[in-house]
Amino acid sequence: MNLEEFCERFQTLQAERPETPRFLHIGQQLLRGLLRDPAWFGECLQGYIAGPTFLADQPTSVFDNEIRLHRSPDKSLTILAYIWDSQDLCAVHDHGAWGLIGSLLSPLREVKYRRLDDGEVEGFARLDQVSDSLLEPGEVGFVLPLNQGIHQTGAVGGALTLSLGIYGRSIRQGYIHFFNPAEKRITRAHTRILFRKVLALRALEAMGETFLAPSLLDSLPEGLVREFERSSSNSKLRSLSNPGVFENPRKLV
């Protein structure tokens, strides 16, 4: 199975809207078929590297080792590849959507956690490790959204590892959470475009009200303004925005 065939078959599965257990079971079977022969992935990498718009074609991400292979127009299906060249695991994180993960080359280590606190204390999270396993090439696991899908992944034994992630439509836009289990801390990890825009707003704020007028804030996406307000020390500017920004957030960027 190649990437195009996989996308067609997977979106047919999504259109059928089966119950979650059946959806995950069939989805895992489809991903195993895609992982069976990595030749299609080699061809994708050749095209990306040789293409003149290699960097421009890739969206920003919180993970530097991520390559987007496909995203459906309605954003209901995203396929991401990850290249792990170290046995260090990525940060413990959650997900904004359901996902299927599988190893394409070399074993992929996955450590799963559950959250024990109620999330009421900002910046605090208490996690308990529930598993530490390996996905051999061709094997597939899954993650659920938000606190149900907290995990970390990476290579083992120093071998370069390739993995694929298949994700649905995000129910939380613009960021994921990074966790530090040892220190019981939780922080937001933003896509780099959002982070840079928030920094730019903070710079305008520091330069004075002449540069950051209420009309500018009113013209920006609600999610962007919300993230700026979270990091702003200027209570006057925070009060200028529409209070509805904290309700019904639109797409962040």
Overview of the molecule:
With 253 residues, this protein is an alpha+beta fold. The chain folds into 2 domains: 186 residues, Jelly Rolls; 55 residues, no CATH class. Helix content is 31%, strand content 29%. It has 7 helices and 11 strands. The chain has a 6-stranded antiparallel sheet. A hairpin with a 4-residue loop joins strand 10 and strand 11. Helix 1 runs antiparallel to helix 2 and helix 4 packs across helix 6. It starts with a helix and ends in a 13-residue tail after the last helix. The C terminus is likely disordered.
Keywords:
6-stranded antiparallel beta sheet; 253 residues; 7 helices; alpha+beta
Question: Can I get a quick summary?
Answer:
The chain has helices at 3-16, 20-35, 39-50, 192-207, 214-218, 222-231, 235-240, and strands at residues 66-71, 78-84, 92-95, 99-105, 108-115, 127-135, 140-143, 146-155, 161-167, 175-180, 185-190. It has 253 residues and is of the alpha+beta class. α1 (3-16) packs antiparallel against α2 (20-35).
User: Runs with pLDDT <50, length 5+?
Assistant: 235-253
Q: How many structural domains does the protein architecture include?
A: 2
User: How far is the N terminus from the C terminus?
Assistant: 34 Å
Which architecture of the largest domain does the CATH hierarchy give at level 2? Sandwich
By DSSP (H or I, 4+ residues per run), the number of helices equals 7
Structural class: alpha+beta
Indicate the overall shape: globular
Number of strands: 11
Which percent bin holds the helix content?
25-40%
Order of helices and strands: HHHEEEEEEEEEEEHHHH
CATH class of the largest domain: Mainly Beta
Name the CATH superfamily assignment of the largest domain. Answer: Jelly Rolls
For the largest beta sheet, what order do the strands appear in spatially?
6-5-8-3-10-11
Largest sheet: 6 strands, antiparallel
CATH topology of the largest domain, which one?
Jelly Rolls
Instruction: Give the percentage of residues in beta strands.
Output: 25-35%
